[in-house]
Design a protein that fits this description.
With 273 residues, the chain is α/β, with parallel strands linked by helices. Strand 7, helix 8 and strand 8 form a beta-alpha-beta unit. It has 2 domains: 142 residues, 3-Layer(aba) Sandwich (Rossmann fold), CATH 3.40.50.620; 127 residues, HUPs (Rossmann fold, 3-Layer(aba) Sandwich). 43% of the residues lie in helices and 21% in strands. A 10-stranded mixed beta sheet has the order 3-2-1-4-5-10-9-6-7-8, with helices on both faces. The radius of gyration is 20 Å and the shape is elongated. The longest helix is centred in the first third of the chain and has 18 residues. Helix 6 runs antiparallel to helix 11. It has 11 helices and 10 strands.
């Protein structure tokens, strides 16, 4: 892992993410790309009425000063940190920065989101997960030492998730974590008998040349199943594939990966299908 992007908005949650990134960077010799997105719109920057260009420059310089002060943390000593400032808060830009710099992972803090706010606005983490092509690690709480022992990877074990699985496997090996595979069986149209579930799972394991066992866990919804199973085995982190659906598809169908990232109390890492 050579480069890690950490979106910074000066919140406690973004500092939690920065600390985790620093911990990983020290262990793996990675560079941190600290990304701050200003909320200046084009009208403010270009308007000629009642707003002077020097005022825009002043605001930009002020943001840069605050950004540099935020990055002057003792735990970043000895870590290569490159500050990047974008003038607009457009979440697809995080993925563009990742592509441009060849980043391997995005680590970001989140306080989650609930209710109508989640439906119509969503958390920043959810928006980044939806747009990112590389793994996104979501941190909710401060972790003094980011050490992962038990890593739950939940999947529907369809062929399209093979690529995400192998990315998750590489991630687990990088952290020297024990990888636990789980299939969540729910009532309704998606319910599978044990026989049919294992048929799908064994086909997946065979295609991916995967020598691991899979736990079948029954619950009322996939999200509850993943969270409850992870809690039952005292998992340190949850890994999950995500389609990154957008627009009306996202509104009506949603994404389990985004929901888990929003609601899980322990760290979640998503892998794009």
């Amino acid at each position: 892992m050579k480069k890690i992007i950490v979106p910074i908005d000066f919140s406690e949650q973004s500092e939690y993410a920065l600390k985790v990134a620093a911990s990983l960077a020290k262990k793996h010799g990675s560079e941190i790309l600290a990304l701050h997105m200003l909320e200046l719109n084009q009208a403010i920057i270009s308007s000629s009425e009642g707003f002077h260009p020097e005022q825009t420059v002043f605001l930009l310089k002020l943001a840069e000063k605050r950004f540099n002060e935020f990055l002057a943390k003792p735990y970043l000593k000895g870590v290569a940190v490159t500050p990047i400032i974008k003038h607009f808060k457009v979440f697809s830009e995080v993925n563009e920065v990742a592509d441009k710099h060849g980043a391997d992972m995005i680590i970001m803090g989140s306080h989650g989101s609930d209710g109508l706010k989640e439906i119509f606005v969503g958390s920043n983490a959810e928006k980044v997960v939806r747009n990112a092509n590389i793994p996104v690690l979501v941190i909710k709480e401060e972790l003094e030492d980011f050490k992962i022992d038990r890593f739950v990877f939940a999947s529907d074990f369809k062929e399209e998730s093979l690529k995400a699985f192998h990315r998750a496997k590489d991630f687990a090996e990088m952290l020297s974590a024990e990888m636990e595979l789980v299939y969540i069986n729910v009532p309704g149209d998606d319910f599978l008998s044990n026989k049919d579930a294992y048929k799908r799972i064994n086909q997946f394991l065979s295609q991916g040349n995967i020598g691991k066992q899979v736990e079948i866990y029954n619950d009322y919804s996939v999200e509850k199943g993943i969270l409850n199973y992870s809690e039952s085995i005292s998992a340190d982190i949850i890994g999950i594939p995500t389609h990154g659906r957008r627009g009306l598809s996202h509104f009506f169908m949603g994404s389990i990966g985004e929901d888990i990232a929003n609601h899980s109390k322990i760290p979640v890492v998503t892998f794009k299908i």
